[in-house]
């Protein structure tokens, strides 16, 4: 009679084999038994046992037969993507962008909704309610069975005090207990991540950062932030504040006057571009979009304002190069992305002149406004797949 220790070891090996098979089906599917054996290194009998168990607990299903080529046809297997659902949200000053995806990563529903008032100016209660209603709408498409929620927001999550620090563009989010109130409003376990960190993960999974071991994602818009990937992993720092470059001491303002937004952000964000354009003599309804549009059209004042912006950005990137030595810097955000045609060349040229260390490749994100949402989904799906698998094998 086998000992309990032997039985436990056998059970652990069985689960490990099933997990390996499940992951390969997810990555390669539709896939056959011989292909699974080649991908996992497991024997065909072990593959057959794992498939039988995975089918029994409802994680995978036969989805057809292979066709073409010589020899016998083979049954093909795929995961059941509807066994788990993830909601990803990007909560910003102007917009809340959200998406629902199944376990395959397929996006089932996508929503972009205006934030409350001027970036949540009505207070955190109204913004929490708006987020909750968006999540409720998305959850209907999953029949209410949401496995997890990942929310990207400016600032640093203070878990102990349940609040967000360093998020001046979302008034009230630094109140103690605010994230606890958010948790009570949402229908499933949730995670809060810095939005720019999630954008970096989105870039790693879906964009220019794929396969790049060391890169930085720099977002320039209403605010400024950076997500850092080192050795293929997101780098958060000791207190979760790595990449908060808004507080780099660049600019002419008194640091005591820029503690709410940061010295770099005060000159290089959207409001900083507007302020520079007005100082140079632009009149009327000046917005960052207008500055860049006028620069494209050849307006000399707008072009000078954009040149100032390029100088601020290049100095910040030179600091990033000296500290991190990245292979790649990806620019995103409303200015970093949408103003690329008039900004990128000047930034590259100035950065090259500023650093003797050798400027890395500087590119504009192809993900646009979806970078944070895609990063939220990628993060949530990794956790959701673990939870769904663990739940299925435990209950079996």
TrEMBL record:
PANTHER family recorded: BIFUNCTIONAL UDP-N-ACETYLGLUCOSAMINE 2-EPIMERASE_N-ACETYLMANNOSAMINE KINASE, ROK (REPRESSOR, ORF, KINASE) FAMILY
Gene3D superfamilies listed in its UniProt record: 3.30.420.40, Winged helix-like DNA-binding domain superfamily/Winged helix DNA-binding domain
Species per Swiss-Prot/TrEMBL record: Actinomadura verrucosospora
SUPFAM superfamilies named in the record: Actin-like ATPase domain, Winged helix' DNA-binding domain
Name of this chain's protein: Sugar-specific transcriptional regulator TrmB family protein
InterPro entries, per the entry: ATPase_NBD, ROK, WH-like_DNA-bd_sf, WH_DNA-bd_sf
Family stated for the protein in its record: Belongs to the ROK (NagC/XylR) family.
Superkingdom of this protein's organism: Bacteria
